UniProtKB/TrEMBL annotation:
Belongs to the FAD-binding monooxygenase family. InterPro entries: FAD-bind_Monooxygenase_sf, FAD/NAD-bd_sf. Gene3D superfamilies: FAD/NAD(P)-binding domain. This is Flavin-containing monooxygenase.
C-alpha cells in the first residue's frame, strides 16, 4: 500500500535532509497551497509537475536547493541535539548532541542559534491506540491517505470524529509550454507567483468574523455545500460528512478526490467513537469490536507545548518548556526573553491556514539577519527581547484573534487547552 510502517520523527536514517516532506510518506501526501508558492522566493521552481505537488516532489526540490547552496557540507546529519543551555557568564549557547548512527556524544558552542525544529513533527498518537498489535501508521489528516489507497485496498473502514469542510482542488499537470515559459521568461513566472500569492492572501478575509468579511466565508461555505451535494449522492453518507461548526475554524480540506473516495462501494464511513484497541481489533463505544489488518491513524500532530522537559535551559536557568507552558509568549514567534541570541523558526503563533509558511520562514530569517547585523555593527555579544515586548505582542494577538473564526467557533489544534489560539498567525503574510 505504500504506507510507512513506523512513525518517522523527521530525522532521516541516512545522511539526507529530513523534515516534513521526508517523514510524511502516505500515498496522497501533498501540499495544500499551490506549489508555485511553496518555494523559496530566491529559488523559484520552474518544474513543478502539477499545481499541487506531492510530498516526494517537494522533498526533491528542497534537496536541490540544499545541494545548490552547498548545505550538505554544513549539515551534521544523524545528529540530535539532546540538550541546549544558555551560559550566562560567557553569553553562549552550549549544545549537547548525539550521533544517532554511531552513538557518539559531544558538545559544541554557538553564539547564535536558529531553532527550526518543525511545528508539525511529533505525531499525536492517542493513548487508546498504542496497544494495537498489527501494523499501524500515522498521518496528519485522512486526506493524505484515503484517496491514495482506496483503489488498492479490498475494504476500508473510515472512522470519523469530526467532519471537515472540503473545497475543490484543481490539480492541473504543468504542461511543457508553461514550464518553457517559466524557465525562459522568469518575469512571467514571477507574475504568476505573485498573482497566486495575492489570491491566497485575499482568502484570509474568509477567516474574519467581521460582518463584511462574512461574505467570502458565506461564499466558501456555499461552495463547500454544493461540492458535497454534487460529489456525495447518498443522503445518509452526506449527513455524516456534513460539518457542524462554522467553516474555517478547523483546517479546510482542499481536495477533489476525497469525497469520491469515501463514496466508493468498498468504503464504510462510521461515526461511532473508538474507545480502545485489543490485539488487532478496535473497540467501539457500543461494546462491539472490529478486527482490522492495518490501522491508519489520521490523528495529526502535537502542536502545543512540544519542547521536552529540561531540554532547553535559557537565561537565569529557566526551563523554556516550563516558562512557556501551554501559553508561550514570544515576540512574533521568533524570540523570547528566556532565550537570548536564539531565533525560533515557525515558532508559536506563526502557522497559517491560508498561504505558504515558507513566506513566514523567509521573513523570520530576514529579521534575524538584520538583528545579527545590528549585533555585529555595534559589537554586541547578546541580543534579547524584553518581556514587555512579548506581552504586548501576545495582547495584540489575543485582541485580534477575537475577530477571527479560529478562536470563537470551535475547538481545534490551533488552540491550547484554555482555548487561546497559539498555533496560528492572526492575519495575512504581508502583514507579518
Ligand atoms: C502532511 C503535511 C502537509 C503540510 N502541508 C503544508 C502546505 O501545504 N503548506 C504549508 O505552508 N505548510 C504545510 N505543512 C507545514 C510544514 O510543516 C511546513 O510547511 C514545513 O515543512 C516546515 O518546515 P520546517 O523545516 O520548519 O520543519 P520540519 O520540516 O518539520 O523540519 C524540522 C527538522 O528539525 C529536526 N529536529 C527537531 N528537533 C531536533 C533536535 N533536537 N535535534 C536535531 N534535529 C531536530 C527534525 O528532525 C526535522 O528534520 C504541512 C505539514 C505536514 C505535516
Amino acid at each position: 500500500m505504500g504506507l510507512t510502517k513506523t512513525f518517522k520523527d523527521g530525522s532521516s536514517p541516512t545522511p539526507e535532509l529530513g523534515g516534513t516532506w521526508w517523514s510524511n510518506t502516505c500515498p496522497n501526501v501533498a501540499c495544500d497551497v499551490k506549489s508555485i508558492d511553496y518555494a523559496f522566493s530566491f529559488e523559484p521552481n520552474y518544474d513543478w509537475s502539477s499545481s499541487y505537488a506531492g510530498g516526494a516532489e517537494i522533498w526533491d526540490y528542497l534537496r536541490r536547493v540544499a545541494r545548490k547552496h552547498h548545505l550538505y557540507d554544513k549539515i551534521r546529519f544523524r545528529t540530535e541535539i539532546t540538550h541546549i543551555e544558555w551560559d550566562d557568564g560567557r553569553q553562549k549557547w552550549v549544545l549537547d548532541y548525539i550521533n544517532l548512527s554511531t552513538g557518539d556524544q559531544g558538545r559544541y558552542e554557538a553564539d547564535i542559534v536558529f531553532a527550526g525544529m518543525g511545528p508539525l513533527r511529533i505525531p499525536k498518537i492517542p493513548k487508546e491506540f498504542e496497544a494495537f498489535e498489527g501494523p499501524k501508521c500515522h498521518t496528519a489528516h485522512a486526506i493524505q491517505v484515503v484517496p491514495g489507497i482506496v483503489n488498492t485496498v479490498k475494504h476500508l473502514d473510515y472512522y470519523q470524529r469530526t467532519a471537515s469542510y472540503v473545497v475543490p482542488r484543481r490539480n492541473v499537470p504543468t504542461n511543457a509550454l508553461w514550464k518553457f515559459l517559466f524557465r525562459y521568461m522568469p518575469f512571467f513566472h514571477f507574475i504568476v507567483y505573485k498573482l497566486q500569492y495575492w489570491a491566497s492572501e485575499y482568502t484570509i478575509a474568509a477567516f474574519s468574523t467581521k460582518l463584511i468579511d462574512r461574505i467570502p466565508r458565506l461564499v466558501m461555505t456555499a461552495m463547500a455545500w454544493l461540492f458535497r451535494r454534487i460529489q456525495i449522492r447518498n443522503t445518509q453518507l452526506r449527513k455524516k460528512l456534513t460539518p457542524k461548526y462554522e467553516m474555517g475554524c478547523r483546517r479546510i480540506v482542499v481536495s477533489s478526490d476525497y469525497y469520491p473516495a469515501l463514496a466508493r462501494k468498498n468504503v464504510d464511513v462510521h461515526t461511532e467513537e473508538i474507545t480502545g484497541v485489543k490485539g488487532n481489533s478496535i473497540l467501539l463505544k457500543d461494546g462491539t469490536s472490529q478486527e482490522v489488518d492495518v490501522l491508519v491513524l489520521a490523528t495529526g500532530f502535537h502542536v502545543q507545548n512540544i519542547l521536552p522537559s529540561r531540554f532547553m535551559i535559557g537565561k537565569d536557568g529557566a526551563d523554556v518548556k516550563t516558562s512557556w507552558g501551554t501559553n508561550p509568549q514570544t515576540y512574533y514567534g521568533l524570540t523570547s526573553p528566556e532565550t537570548p541570541n536564539m531565533f525560533f523558526l515557525l515558532g508559536p503563533n506563526i502557522g497559517l491556514g491560508h498561504n505558504s509558511v515558507l513566506f513566514m520562514v523567509e521573513t523570520q530569517v530576514e529579521y534575524a539577519l538584520k538583528a545579527i547585523s545590528h549585533m555585529m555593527k555595534h559589537d554586541l555579544t547578546t541580543l534579547e527581547v524584553t518581556s514587555q515586548a512579548c506581552r504586548d505582542f501576545a495582547d495584540e494577538v489575543d485582541e485580534k484573534m477575537k475577530g477571527m473564526v479560529w478562536s470563537t467557533m470551535c475547538n481545534s489544534w490551533y488552540q491550547n487547552k484554555q482555548g487561546r489560539v497559539t498555533a496560528l498567525w492572526w492575519s495575512s503574510c504581508s502583514h507579518y
